[in-house]
Each structure stands twice: as C-alpha cells, then as structure tokens.
Amino acid sequence: MPTLARGRKIGTGDSVAGMGDLEFRQAAPADAAAVRSLATRAYRGRVGWTTESHLLTDERIDHDGVLAKITAPDGLVLLTMLDDRLIACCELHRSDDTTAYFGLFAVEPDLQAGGIGRRVLAEAERTVVQRWRSTVMEMQVVGQRAELIDWYVRRGYRLTDQRRPFPYDRLVNGAALRPDLYFAVLTKNLD
Hints:
This protein is an alpha+beta fold. It is built from four helices and eight strands, in the order ββααβββαβαββ. The protein has an eight-stranded mixed β-sheet with strand order 1-2-3-4-5-6-8-7. Strand 5 (99-107), helix 3 (116-132) and strand 6 (136-142) form a beta-alpha-beta unit. Helix 1 (32-44) packs across helix 2. The longest helix is centred in the middle third of the chain and has 17 residues, at 116-132. It is globular, with a radius of gyration of 16 Å. The chain starts with 7 loop residues before the first strand and ends with a strand.
C-alpha cells in the first residue's frame, strides 16, 4: 500500500506568498502537543477567520484526542511545515473502501487567508487517493459556519442534506455558547 512520502516538499513555484517552500509530513506521537496547540489557536483563539470562539469556549481537543488521531490504524495527521515551523494540520481517516474523512483542519491564525488552506486541502485529497485509493472525501463542519461551508463549496465540496448531532457531552474544559449547534456534512468526488 502506498504511504505518505516523508517530507514531501512543494517546490518554489508553489511557495506561499514568497514565504518559502511548504513541506508535508505525517505526524508522529511526539507532534501531539504542537498539533493540539495549533488547533486550539485556530479554532478557539480571537484571531483568524476560522475561529469558533463565538460559538464555543472549550479547548477544541485534548492531548489524548490528538494522539488517538495520530496513531489511528486507518488514519493519520498531516502536518504542513514552513521553514521547520508547524503552520497547518489536518486529520485524514479511511472511513471505508471508497471514502476518506477530512477533519481537524487548522492553519496558523496569522497566516490564514493567504492560500495555505487551499494547498493543504489539495495535498490531503492527493494523499487519500494515493494512500487508500479513496474516491470520496467527507467532512463535517459546524452548520452555523456559513462562511466556512462556502469556502469548501468553492473548492468543489457539496453540502449534503445530512446533519449530525453536535457532541455537547465531549467538550474539553469548556462549554457551548448556544444550544442549537450541529454538524453539516460535505462531500467531494475525487476521481
């Protein structure tokens, strides 16, 4: 089975706003604290357009949750490095023979809206096709995040009719600020 190329670099022609080359690699257990910190800043911080701090006051994910994603037998956490600095991450998980799940997508807040997210998403799609021969990518997004859903739709994802319950009982050291949260499900055909 093909594996993720260690340290796959995106060449100078693919550099982000002249910042240098992006490097993608699979996270190891030693990366769990850095991934957790990045996810918390991106989702619960006050900076960046992906923050959900107006909806939730929790820590997004705990160390054990990140470690479980990194070590999942049918999954991985993909790291995006820029000059040896972690600037983005995402979780990829093989759901079944055709479908891969995309989640835990975080870009360093001070670098958002600069094209990094598009590159990470494209690399994630390439990775699941190469590694698992997936033909569909699925994700879930907090349904109240219309601007984020629109961003994915512009990248070829389709908003389905599926809604999944929000896990109020699994919040990490915090609370939801509204009682009507849910997940909207998006999919994209990768063939």
